Fold this protein.
Amino acid sequence: MNRRSFIAQVAATTTAGLAHSTSISERAEALEHRMMVELDEQVVVRPRMCSVGAEPSAGPSRRANGSSITYQMGPDPNLPSMPSKPNLIDFFEQRFAPAMHLLQSAALAQEAGLDEETVLACLLHDISVFGLIRSDHGYWGAQLVEPYVSERVSWGIRYHQSLRFFPDPAVGYDYPEAYIRYFGADYEPEPHIRAAAEYARNHKWYMTARHITINDIYAFDPNAHPTLDLFKEIIGRHFKQPSEGLGYDGSPVAHMWRTIMFPTNFL
Ligand SMILES: [Fe+2]
Ligand SMILES: [Fe+2]
């Protein structure tokens, strides 16, 4: 299937097949998933922060300001509003929703009886893909949460990215069949990814990152609809929410949370 016919098919089925989807971001996630699964050509995916909540625009967002047109700054009226002191749950609900991939991964980890910090790591493992940027998402995601979680949780998020490419049959992890479709059968990870995986393989927290990959599903289970409520207590116990709100606490990563909050700001 080529891109043109795929888009035509998506357009034809949007009303019927995705009618149950209630939000633009939910439809975007469903469409992106279908593209990942069905499109057999190279795909360039826009960073999520450029498209969350609203139809992507060709350039900087503008808005009417009386008789003139100005560039977007501050809260974007096209996006769900955020509270003045947002916490992690606000970001999940207003910027990442429905993030079913994260919820299903965490639910699998919980069902497997893994410890709470590993469940949290699974819940957050692709947070960068959902909120910020896809390329090198393990590193961006680990950095984003580093001030607020244990060192082991952020370490696991960082290294799941490289370990995903390397099987470990001893613990039941095979090379993802989906990666053959996504990247081609002849794809070889970059040397720095290979080096990172080898480093992680010999680290004391190896199994935290490995458990993320084991529970990292690439197929939505249509019958599984875990909600964030399942994990709110774990978040409360293991995510140190800053009292000023994420983005306003002066941490080294506060600007990253603000960028997720205000992705369409001109500057
Ligand atoms: Fe990932
Ligand atoms: Fe994932």
About this structure: Confidence is low (pLDDT under 50) at residues 1-22, 36-41. The chain has two domains: 3-45, 88-260.
